[in-house]
Amino acid sequence: xxxxxxxxxxxxxxxxxxxxxxxxxxxxxxxxxxxxxxxxxxxxxxxxxxxxxxxxxxxxxxxxxxxxxxxxxxxxxxxxxxxxxxxxxxxxxxxxxxxxxxxxxxxxxxxxxxxxxxxxxxxxxxxxxxxxxxxxxxxxxxxxxxxxxxxxxxxxxxxxxxxxxxxxxxxxxxxxxxxxxxxxxxxxxxxxxxxx
Length: 196
Prior knowledge:
By secondary structure, this protein is mainly alpha-helical. It is built from five helices and two strands, in the order H-E-H-H-E-H-H. It has a two-stranded antiparallel sheet with strand order 1-2. Helix 2 packs across helix 5, helix 3 (73-97) packs antiparallel against helix 4 and helix 4 (125-141) runs antiparallel to helix 5. The longest helix has 39 residues, at 144-182. It is globular, with a radius of gyration of 18 Å. Mean pLDDT is 87; it is low at 1-6.
């Protein structure tokens, strides 16, 4: 069997996601302001370490190699469904963000505050989708190393969302404050109608 035939379903999903993200990144607007490399380095290190624990089979030793969920096909299927749902949310959000997307905390030229699609309910739906997808992948792996990876990725995404909120607050003032009041950072606010 060829090596690519051993790639798991969730790995294929992440590969498709990465390919789309790479292609879509070629059509973004010019950058107006960007956080410094020094500022982003600790957060990106946490995210990278989380990904290593999530996908790195070489960490499957000792406690990290033990299961935190039983090896049941129903749990695996639930994990794949969560991964698909999370990546779907991230795709949807990326589509609505369009030319204003960036891998770093950035303001683009002509940047406007996006309030359509999932941004009606969440300030950072790409991160929400990634968090859901990472949680799903953690279930499919089922090992403590993956659970540690999920926690590290969650910390990194929360950290980045906080930094982006600060940048958006400075750039958009009251408009961002109104969006902040009606949306959740990573989870929707229930009980409050989204503004039309």
